[in-house]
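TL;DR need C-alpha cells for one chain.
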Amino acid sequence: MNRPPSACAALLLLLPAPPAAAASLQSCRAIADDHARLACYDSLAGPPASAPAPAASAPPPALTQRLENQQAAERNRFAIVPYKPNYILPITYTPNRLGNPDYGFRPEHSEVKFQISFQFDMLSGLLGRGTSLYGTYSQLSFWQAYNGAASSPFRETDYEPELGLGYRPRNLRILGLDVPLLRLGFVHQSNGQGGLRSRSWNRIVATAAFQRGNFAGVLRVWKRIRLTSQNDNPDITDYLGYGSLVLAYKLHDQTFALTLHDNLRWHANRGALQLDYSFPLTHRLKGYVQYFSGYGESLIDYNRSINRLGIGIMLTDWL
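>> reply
TL;DR here they are.
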C-alpha cells in the first residue's frame, strides 16, 4: 500500500527545477582545455548584443559649410578663397541705351559681364580668439566683346578693395538666426578712369552674416566718407543708398539668391534688385542665370536704371 507524500515532499515538488545553465556551468568548469572551456562559456552567454547604431548627425548650415571650406582653403598657400560669387556671363542683354558721350564709341545692347572676387585673412587672433585682419578684392567688368566696329572694348570695369576687422562669434543668435560672422571695414570703389568718366567713392561698411539651415543672408550697412577731391559722383548715395541685403537659399545643389539695395526714401525712391539662380554642371562648375533691374549695376551707370538678363557659368557661389 502506497503512502501519501509528506508535506516536505510536496513542497519539493512545487519548487522549480534547477536551471540547465547552472548544470552547464558546472560542466564547463570541468573542461580542462582552456579554449574548449572558453567556447563553452561563450555558448552559454549567447551571441553578443549588437551596439546601437550611432544617430546620424545633422549637416551643418549652408553658410557654416562655406566658412569652414574657406578656413580649410586658407591653410593652403596655393588656394584662392572666394568672397563674392565668381562668374562669367558670356551672353547678357539689356534693352536700355548704354551710350555715353565720354565713351568715344557706340555700345551694343549685348555684352559679356564677369566678376572676380577673393578674400584672405592677413592676421588671425589680432584682438583675441575669432578675430582677424582681413582683406578682399572684387572686380566687375562689362566687355563689348561683340562690338567689332569698336574693336571690342571694355565699356566699364569697377575695382573694389576692402580692408577691415572680422570676428567669428560662437553661439551668437539674434531673432532666432545664427550669426557666424561680423565685419567692419573700409571699402574703396573706383572705375579707374579720369576726367568725365571718373567714378569713385569710399565707405565704412559694417557687415553681419546670418543663417538658419539652408537659408543665409548678408546685411551690409555703410557710411560714405566724402573727400574734397571726389566730386565726380556726389549724389551716389541717392541711387545706391546706405546698405544692401543678400538673401540666399540652397536647395540640394541649386542656389537661389536675391540682392537688394535702396535709398529708403519715400520721395524719389531708387534702388535695385538682382536675382540669381545657379545649378550644377560639373563637379567644379555651375550654370548661372542672373537678372538685374535698377540703379548701380556699375559705377558708370550708377544714376541710370538698367534691366539686364544674363546666362553663363559660375565658379563660386554665395553658398
